[in-house]
Amino acid sequence: MKTPIWDFVRSYGDSGIQRLHMPGHKGRGPLGFERFDITEITGADDLSAPDGIIEESERYAGELFDSRHTFYSTGGSSQCIKAMLYLALLHRKPGTDLRILAGRNAHKAFIQGCGLLGLEPVWLWPEKRDSLCACEISPEGLRKALEQEKTPPLAVYITAPDYLGGSPDMGALAQVCREAGVPLLVDNAHGAYLRFLPETLKKKGFRHPLELGASMCTDSAHKTLPVLTGGAYLHIAKGAEAPYEAEARQALALFGSSSPSYLILSSLDACNGALAGKLPDQISACAEALTELKEEILARGIPVRPGEPLKLTVDAAAMGHGGEELADLLREQGVEPEFADRDFLVLMFSGDTEEAAFRAVRKALLGIVPGKARPHLSLPEGGQAVMSLREAMLAPQETVPVSLAAGRICGGITVSCPPAIPLVVPGELISQEAAERLLQYGHERIPVFLP
Length: 451
Known about the structure:
By secondary structure, the chain is an alpha/beta fold.
């Protein structure tokens, strides 16, 4: 498959031409990659209105993902999430309101987008509140939530896979949305690679949201594919109920920079060539090796949370340990994990993961002696909204110690990244339990509404 962006950038970088245009480094500098960092010069196309190499590259990406259109983002999935919300708002059906049903484990970008656009989330809470990061939503639960709405919501928004690797029955959720006439938007930030799994794994339910009926979804290409940080896709499904692609560039431009990184664009483009080549085989091999490692770890009594093929999530609480403790053991073996908190350890693998990483993980984890299980840090009850999200986000605020925040109205998002999932959302009353959870997650101060 052709890689027109990378071919142009590389050719220009090697040309030796005198650059009397931005950026200021003029293709030279101590880092070594400055020669590939360009702007919208002649021939480089324009991400906001492409008609050349970017348009061609996006077309190749759309073929790989079997989408109606795939758009590039250099602002990560955060930019794409806000664009999806804007497009859903722009194409909302008559009679729908500005409410959107969403899993409570939504990324902060979703909350920011809702606040900026004047949308109001209606939270779908998991039946089992054993983690901030997970939100299992059943088709029956979604159907019931939709039936309880007096008017049809703008859309349904699901995060899958979640940060711990879990995913609901996306095909069944999509069917419920179709029956209700409501578009399904999916934050598939962690699942770009799902499209390229072998059929043996796809038959087990590990499929890309576009294959399962989502109207729109976003992938963080940089999370599981060989793309530079910030590279992402906004996919419009072939079966989408509205011509979202007509205003998608307008939507992305609304939340992104007018100076996109050509280093990131080049990596998205080069990834097309890899996906059309050997990368799917590498992904399959990694998934197979990780399955064997999970089975070996489980056989030693170390609990592994079920989930996606390229993520290893150890339930530290269930084995009487702390996730941060396990992370330190891995670091002693030269491994830096993706995420660790009080209860869980998360490791992300990819088609480029080396055998040495498997050996190090095996050595670190198999040397652990499981202890007595302890309860997980559950999600606090509540989520009582006393102000609109937009009003709370844009109102005057003050930052107070979390120990003094109970009874106040949350004014801003307080969250660590990862996982970038807030315990309390702007406009909600901060309960005593929520304040305690914030402290347990290491947050000492929080913005609150200033009356």
